[in-house]
Write a structure and sequence with these properties.
It contains four helices and seven strands. The chain is an alpha+beta fold and about 120 residues long.
Length: about 120
């Protein structure tokens, strides 16, 4: 018997972000997704969908949070970063004080979530 999942990776990341970063209530997030507040709380805590990693801060750039769906949240600006297209690929421009670095999007998830 195969188990069908109700939420995809992007939805799980959105639920976790809404609860854990934006501090929205589980009932309001649940209403948006058509799920019970208890289900949303289990997803946010990682008890459900545990195969999808929780968001992590990016090594060397503590004011950014990486999500397993490839999005990056800036805690200082309270918004998701847009990736920048350059001639040889797509990048996220990150900074930590005077340290600025263009991080390639290709392989980004593997680098952040493999440790």
């Amino acid at each position: 018997m195969s188990t069908q999942r109700r939420f995809n990776k992007n939805q799980v990341c959105t639920i976790r972000h809404s609860i854990n970063v934006l501090n929205e209530s589980a009932s309001s997030v649940g209403a948006r997704f058509g799920a019970a507040a208890s289900t949303v709380r289990r997803i946010a805590s990682g008890d459900s969908y545990s195969d999808i990693p929780m968001a992590r801060s990016i090594p060397g750039f503590p004011s950014y949070i990486a999500y397993p769906n490839g999005r990056v949240w800036s805690t200082s600006r309270s918004k998701f970063l847009k990736s920048v297209n350059k001639g040889n690929g797509t990048y996220f421009n990150l900074r930590n004080g005077s340290n600025r670095q263009a991080i390639p999007r290709r392989g980004f998830e593997q680098r952040v979530f493999s440790s």
